[in-house]
Amino acid sequence: MPSLSKAWRRISHSQPSPRTKAGSEESSNASIRSKHANKSTNTLDTASADSNSTTPPTSVSNPDLSAGASEATLTPRRPPMTANGTNRYSVLSSNGFPQARVSPLAPIITSISDGSATHQKVLLVRGQIGSLEALGDLHLSSSHPHRTYNGLVHIFSHQGSFPVYSVPVVESRFKALIHLQAGRNTLRFEFEKARSSHGVLPGEHVSWLNLNYIPLNASPPLHLAILVAADSEEKFDAPPHRVAAEGNDLEVAKRKYRMAAYLWQAYTADQMQRNGFLSRCFRLEEEWQPSTLGGFEDPQPWRSEARIHVIRLKQTVAELRNPEYAQQNPNAKESGKLFEIAMQACKEHFKCVPNGQKQYVSAMFLDSHWDPNLNLLTGHAALGGGDGESLQLAIFGSHLLYSYPMCIQHVIPAFNDCTPTDTRYVCNDCGDCGSSWEAANVGIGAHMHEVGHLFGLPHRPSGVMMRDYVKLNRTFTVGEPFSTRTRSPGKKFLPREEECAWSRLDCLRFRYHPCFRHTTDRYTPVEGGIQVWGIADEVTATSDAGIAWVEIYADDDEMCYAWKEYLPRRPMQGSESPRSDQCPRTVRLVEAELREHLKQQLPANKKKFSKIRLQICSTTNVQLTIDDLGKLTDKSSLVKIPNGQKAYRSGKLGLGAMEGSKPQELVLESAYLKVKEKDILGNEVVKAKVVRSVRVYHGLALDGIEFCHEDGTSQLFGSRGGKPGGDEFVLDTRIGETIAGFYVRAGAWIDAIQIITTMTGRKSPIYGNPTGGSGHTLIPPNGYRVMGIAGSCGQWVDSFQLIIGR
């Protein structure tokens, strides 16, 4: 009996049919339905058999579905519904859109509600045949329907803006990618049951879905680039049968790469929705161009689709394929060279400049090549990162590009193509690509993994940022074919719990990443520094932007197994994405509580650890790392004031690693000293010593700070270098104005400083280099005040801390 994967293989390289004229569409659709409905089982088996197939065995077998798959994908577009036609199977919702189902077998979309807004052109939806209320979500492992249906769901886009295509229904479940155009979209889903014993009426099992596609324009885009060698033939590796069916030139590479990027976007939006962030996702740079998402349409329409930059490198093919550059060569001397080449080329092409708009680029080397003689993949590296200033980059090779789908209609066939990998022509990457569908998993998924690094994600214990992308296909298909990687038979259905996922921490980082910003998000300042204060036996973390979550690490472990979230709870499930302005600005971190929480989450072989490392994350995507939480609350953080009072040091800004740097500590005399003065009547009174002004010494960095008192004395932290005489900021002591805190710009050293006073809104100018380092606002938590400063100084001040007390 033929498998589901065989049927989809038959159409994996077929071209979507050109659109037919409106006058012939209805009769064409009716004839297709009639043909499927009246075929016997034997006829269907004969029609779908492939005697020459070398497909590995699979447990997925549905002859009716297999027979109809190939032809139904070519279904012409149905004309708009008329008032006297099949509208009897739907009613209008309150907004005037078709909405309600009448037939019990009409498709139900379970992954998104009617009338929702989405922000990506290609949307992944899940659905089922049968009542959601009665059966529950059939895509969960807990659902076991008594009766299931197989067949096809035909998808009709808004106003015929995209070719009609079909997806299989397996045991009443289906998944589909739908194409949206900007604005309001009304989509039609029509179920055609397999083995129907009677003629199928047009529009018998129909449902509608209304969506609003709102393109993003408030975030920097992800650019897509193909890197081509100076003397490249502009071909990528592919087995002969693929070359004959599709080609392997630059234009085909662009089609496949573009489709892969839309799969990344659809997958990420779906994962964000599952984590309670609606359909939040990154955006792709798009341009108006001949469309490829709909396949080979005739005539070819123009649409706004992802732009592919073709960047010609200075290096030749031979240079790129140097075994010393090959990442998978264990003896390579320059395994990071390809990343350097890509970084330089992309900086020049995208005109990246320091302190300018940071660019986000995903690049692919077209000239990657599998050398069977050397048993080595050359011209390829899977890396992601950036320079921290102007460019974030992910790179990958084209060695698995042959297995990618070229258009939306090819996605399900690509993830069901069991054609064995022929290592005479193409690479079996890491032994995980024994068949075409597994190669597509690794190619699309591993490149997405590097895009995760581009967005600042570290490795995780599981999910995309480990190696779970070998299961990427499960998100887009109901079942799975035979796997050469695990030697496991195919399955008709795999529940949502067994799919690949972005981890919860990845989704949290995406939520507050600038590339995932939505037009409805509140404005957040670029400077969202985090400060930590070791007070008694706990640490207080503060941030004006709000603290979203804290990651907890054991010792120097790279993997994070435990974290605490501070996101506000939504009023009801699915109502809105948590607002960043509702995150707390101050959180308490008690070491004993964090240790216990970490122990509960760690695997058995990592239960023993000595120190706790924290990474505190704000809503502006700023992270602060505390290497050892215990040191912030031990005796070394205590400062004894001469009057016996206890004070505490804040977290350190700057590295304090300058040659000749020496620690310094200054406790303000105004914090504890009392002076005797005579009032206007000649009576002797005791009052606190008062700081009259602050003098700042600086050039393009902070050299020193001098606190000048009303009695003519002063205290100096650092030196009097830089601008002769420094700059003086005078306080209005008549109304009791004092120092409330500082705004500090710091990196490796202290670049600049600004004094913040207790008078609302009053600040000094920024002294030093106002654009150096990153910004941090140092204001003590409620109930505490500035009692001094500490740090270190070499040629200039290279570290800075506040001393605070009651």
TrEMBL record:
Coiled coil: none
InterPro entries with a match to the protein in the record: Jacalin-like_lectin_dom, Jacalin-like_lectin_dom_sf, Metalloproteinase_M10B, Unchr_Zn-peptidase-like
Residue ranges, compositional bias (Polar residues): 39-50
Region of interest called Disordered, as start-end residue ranges on this chain: 1-90
SUPFAM superfamilies: Mannose-binding lectins
GO cellular component, one term: cytoplasm
Occurrences of domain Jacalin-type lectin (ranges): 663-806
Positions with biased composition (Low complexity): 51-63
PROSITE patterns to which the protein is assigned, alphabetical: JACALIN_LECTIN
Database matches in PANTHER family: MIP04191P, ZINC METALLOPROTEINASE-RELATED
Protein's name in the database: Jacalin-type lectin domain-containing protein
Organism: Verruconis gallopava
Biological classification of the source: Eukaryota, Fungi, Dikarya, Ascomycota, Pezizomycotina
